[in-house]
Amino acid sequence: MLPPLLLLPWVWGALAASPPVPPASVTLRVLHIDVFHNASSTDIWGTALLGDLETNSVGCSTCKIRFLQPWVERSLTPKEWQDLELLVHRSLFSFNRTVNRIVQQQGMGYPFVTQGSLGCELHPNGTSRGFYDGGLNGEKFISFDVEAGKWVARRQDKLTIYILDLLNLDKVATIALQFLLRMTCVNTLKSSVQHGKESLARQEKPVAVVFARAPPPAGTPAPVLLVCRVTGFYPRPVRVAWLQDGEEVAPGGRLNSSGILPNADLTYQLRSSLAVEPGARHSYACRVQHSSLGGQSLLIPWEQSRPWGPGLAVGITLGVLAVAAVAVVLRRSRRRGCQDVRPGEPRP
Description:
Blueprint: H1 7-15, E1 26-38, E2 41-50, E3 53-60, E4 64-67, H2 70-73, H3 78-106, E5 112-122, E6 128-136, E7 139-145, E8 150-153, H4 158-169, H5 171-195, H6 197-200, E9 207-212, E10 224-233, E11 239-244, E12 247-248, E13 255-257, E14 261-262, E15 268-276, E16 284-289, E17 297-301, H7 310-339
Antiparallel strand pairs: 1-2, 1-5, 2-3, 3-4, 5-6, 6-7, 7-8, 9-10, 10-15, 11-12, 11-16, 13-15, 14-15, 16-17
Helix pairs in contact: 1-5
């Protein structure tokens, strides 16, 4: 039982020569999600990523391959893409039929969701690592050991063992998958890096701000939470650290991070927080290291004279503007009232 998008990188690799090794480690990954509503209704979604760059997507009923980067479409001829779509469609049909047969044999219920992640990682020294991880309803299910050429269970229930034995009995499929992840995927990865080198070389510098989220009331022992918000950077790898009196704060309970999150403009963001004791006579700064900075670091100190966050500062500013606006309106109304009073009439 081959994964539904297995033939996608297979054909790419078969048609590509073996370009040189990329100068940095990079990963080619194909993700697929299959939602089985019942025996006759399945929603399928898939995407291919080069590093963190989404290059293609597939959605079936039609199984049309969508190009999310212009250079991807130029890597194959229209006839080759047409043949590839046909192979993907046949693979999906076979996968769904096999899954539904297992459901009937094992008495499983609908609906359920299967997930898969397969691909390879290539390093500058020429070594590579292939992988395939499968999930069921969001939990780890099975994975493929490329070196041993066999499937491995990630849980020990009856259904997992049954499917594991079924997959390992298909020696032809396991050998094909092993070759795919060791050879074809690596050649495809090299070719994709060549075609998309300009997109992969894109650099966006981070923008950072430091503020105290919630200063404690005077006289309370609660710590001050300093927040460093870093956003707008690309590519994804970034390092954010806190400095206390110029020395990096060691990992521990005082530190917390949101992890790297995507932005809508295909850049990334991250928030790192540090708990500090109120009134402590220390200097604090947030240090950001990213490839777009050319080997330098972005250093943002915390100004203790302004211990509130940007939200509070904006609120105070708007409040002052609102008061000023009311004062102007009252002044104009008073002038208008004075001008409208006629001689001999009492002032309102």
